[in-house]
UniProtKB/TrEMBL annotation:
Residues in Leucine-rich repeat-containing N-terminal plant-type domain copies: 29-68
Entry keyword Signal: yes
Protein name per its UniProtKB record: Leucine-rich repeat-containing N-terminal plant-type domain-containing protein
The entry's keywords: Glycoprotein, Leucine-rich repeat, Membrane, Repeat, Signal, Transmembrane, Transmembrane helix
Membrane topology according to the record: Single-pass type I membrane protein
Gene Ontology CC, one term: membrane
Disease resistance R13L4/SHOC-2-like LRR domain segment(s): 83-235
Location in or out of the cell: Membrane
Taxonomic source organism: Gossypium schwendimanii
Primary localisation category: membrane
């Protein structure tokens, strides 16, 4: 094969490939745009934050609250905190397939978490605190194994904490305080060794805690369990012998498991 043939062969391969790749990037970016325009359609935005900014004439990457990856230019973060948005979370968000971080905190969102969010396998941060979200904490959250922060404080979630959360093996912060969760705290969550902060403060959780609950939590700094209906003794693994959860409040385990603060 001489130089020319080789050159033409390479060119012949390169051109169609570039065209296909370019077309794919464009199509995928348009799909992110489609998803976000659907989101905008479905959400009430009384302050017109999105109405005047999320327009098809500019790239999604320049839209307020949207961040894109540097190379592939897909949407990797959506941060719409404190924009006074109302309505239910549209299922379309499940198609933002490159999303790493979702922050919809401090809005007025209600309804259930759509199961389509369970497709967002790259997610590392889920911040949905300070809304009026309700229904059960879905089992499919356990499939999102890269999540490091799951924060859903001050909502109206009911039902029990699902066992499936044990599969979130990178979880560092689990914040479900100020909801209406009931039932036993699944002992499996005390086996996620990456955990740093667990806050279940102010729910209706009941039952006792596993005796060895802190043995598998080498990084735990803070454990907030008060204002629940938990009973029994504090497991010996956290260093106190008797401790009534219903009138005591915060167990603070910053640094070591020896220090138990009553506030
Ligand atoms: C949308 O908001 C962003 C961030 O505030 C701003 O940089 C951009 O210029 C705005 N775009 C339009 C079309 O108003
Ligand atoms: C979202 O933006 C706010 C400030 O606008 C910031 O405080 C917050 O940390 C951001 N959320 C995430 C998950 O980065
Ligand atoms: C998500 O994308 C898939 C494939 O393009 C499509 O079939 C589905 O309808 C989309 N879902 C939503 C809720 O937009
Ligand atoms: C949420 O909506 C209710 C009723 O529409 C309103 O009273 C409340 O102030 C809103 N909360 C926020 C944080 O905007
Ligand atoms: C969180 O919820 C609690 C209990 O419902 C309430 O007292 C508190 O004011 C809420 N905090 C915020 C910042 O909304
Ligand atoms: C955790 O994931 C594994 C593998 O996907 C699955 O077999 C198991 O049932 C899951 N555990 C829970 C408690 O959901």
């Amino acid at each position: 094969m001489n130089y020319n043939t080789c050159f033409h062969l390479l060119l012949g391969l390169f051109i169609p490939c570039s065209v296909v790749c370019l077309a794919m990037t464009t199509r995928n970016l348009n799909s992110d745009q489609f998803v976000l325009l659907k989101f905008k359609d479905r959400i009430a935005d009384p302050q017109n934050v999105l109405a005047n900014n999320w327009t098809a004439s500019t790239s999604v990457c320049n839209w307020i609250g949207v961040s894109c990856g540097i190379i592939h230019k897909r949407v990797i973060a959506l941060n719409l905190t404190s924009m006074n948005l109302r309505g239910t979370i549209p299922p379309h968000l499940g198609n933002l397939s490159f999303l790493l971080s979702l922050d919809l905190s401090s809005n007025n969102l209600s309804g259930h978490l759509p199961k389509e969010l369970g497709q967002l396998h790259r997610l590392r941060i889920i911040q949905l605190s300070y809304n009026g979200l309700n229904g059960e904490i879905p089992e499919w959250l356990g499939n999102l194994q890269r999540v490091q922060r799951l924060e859903m404080e001050n909502n109206s979630f009911t039902g029990t904490i699902p066992q499936t959360l044990v599969n979130m093996s990178n979880l560092e912060i689990l914040n479900l305080q100020f909801n209406q969760l009931s039932g036993q705290v699944p002992s499996s969550i005390f086996r996620i060794s990456s955990m740093k902060i667990i806050s279940l403060f102010s729910n209706s959780l009941s039952g006792s805690l596993p005796n060895d609950m802190c043995q598998h939590l080498p990084k735990l700094e803070v454990l907030y369990l008060s204002r629940n209906e938990l009973s029994g003794k504090v497991p010996s693994s956290i260093g106190a012998t008797t401790f009534k959860f219903w009138h005591c409040s915060i167990i603070n385990l910053r640094g070591s498991f020896q220090e138990v603060l009553e506030i």
